[in-house]
Amino acid sequence: MTNRRWLITGCSSGLGHALATYLTAKGEQVLATARNISGLDFPHVTRLDVTDPEQCEAAVNLAVERFGGIDVLVNNAGYGQMGVVEEVSDAELEAQFATNVFGPWRLARLVLPHWRAQGGGHAVFVSSISGSLPLPNLSAYTASKFAFEGLAESLAQDAGMFGVKVTILQLGGFTTDYGKKAFDPARKLPEYEPVAGEIEQLVRGLADNPDCWSPETFAAMVGRLVEMPDPPLRLPYGGKAREFLEGAFAARRAAFDTVQEP
Predict the structure, then answer these.
(1) What architecture does CATH give domain 5-258?
(2) Which pLDDT does position 206 carry in this prediction?
């Protein structure tokens, strides 16, 4: 790997921490960021809550000052809001989008002037199969990931002429604490238990699921990804990602081919 300059969000644990660890060991220049930076042992660390515009601007400026620029932005910070549509409140929905959509949009907007000036960059959007495959009891999270991927594809269209590359990582299962940390809605309706209960159990148990992959495999994959001269716009990766997405795309195609106008 060449000595690239990275800005990575959500490095306190899980995938972000594994990626920052892997890249630092390879000699890459990494600005590791998180809302809570206590315990982060990397050469370059700064506090970043992606919902805070001032902290976003400060993080981008710090990376440029220390490294002379940014080559790769990894929009990894995010969380899951559980709940069906009827359960999720306005405040819970707004918080989900503030972290999963508005923050990544803000960071992309802040990095773009530097990428136009230097002739390119690579934006990596850490998404989920939920960006293409809606699941019950994950309504807000799914909606945010659909928007997240729409942002990424729009960025690729907008800035490709400046040498900007974009990759959406459509992740399957990984052995992180994502499921354990996912928020329950304040209002739970027992009527939805038949559709919500099974998914909640699945999500809560991801860290112990034998079908899930390790964060270290994710980190090594991202290291290989940025070496590609023409990286893919979409990359399914992780436990059962391709299996679930193939089923979803086949069903959508079948519906498209058979639908009739009223």
Answers:
(1) 3-Layer(aba) Sandwich (3.40)
(2) 83
